[in-house]
Amino acid sequence: MNAFTWIVLSLIVISSARHTASGQGWRQVNAQGQPIHYQAADQENLSEYQGQIESGIRFVQAFFGHTYSRQFDIYIHPNRNSLDSTWQKDWNMPAFKSECWMVASGVAAKLDMIAPRQWDKLSCEHHYADKDKTQQLITHELVHVYHGQHNGSPDFSAVEGIDWLVEGLATYASGQCDPSRISGVKKRVAEHQVPAGLDDFWKGNDKYGLSGTLVMYIDHQYGRQKLISLLPFTNKAAVLATLGITESTLLAGWQSYIGGLQE
Description:
Layout: H1 3-10, E1 27-31, E2 34-38, H2 46-64, E3 73-77, H3 80-90, E4 104-106, E5 110-114, H4 119-122, H5 131-150, H6 163-173, H7 179-190, H8 207-222, H9 224-228, H10 236-243, H11 247-260
Parallel strand pairs: 2-3, 3-5
Antiparallel strand pairs: 1-2, 4-5
């Protein structure tokens, strides 16, 4: 997998090194036993952010039926420059500048995010006033943290052919497979406009819906424990072998499942 493409498409940190955020003035509180690092500029809204993080942690743990396997750090960045400077160190890319839609990332060791109340000003597609979507995005990244703690590649830098699983799991488990996304996928299935293979699921405007509903189908068809058993794998062959099916059989079953969903 091309590392830069993975950064742009999935917001997932690709360096195995664990860095703290740059600069001075970091303060700390805890959320569900996990340390939250923040700056004075976010003190006023800290309790709100803390509540969103705690809610996300509880949601993730309820979905998987287990707590996080180890402690991880949560950094609330007051601005995009702070986030970029951290990602530049984590990714060993000194000149990297994040795209306007990038506001957070999660791997096994930590979660970084721009302070949510700054999203309207500092991002091009996230609106803090939409509290449900804000919560789901935070939860999405917390799913990545949980997944990373159980994956053979904790920062996902060594995964091959399972972008759809990494992002689809975070989309589905965070509640982002909403009626609008499902409706869009149903339309594509009905019009026979779906990817021919798994490698194309995490592409295009409908990548969240396609990947999320595929994981939703696996959960429905094979059960939660089977879905959880896929967390350690870093390649497509291992995932398909554990499910005991071929790629074409998986995709055919998914299409049939989507076609039968009621809107």
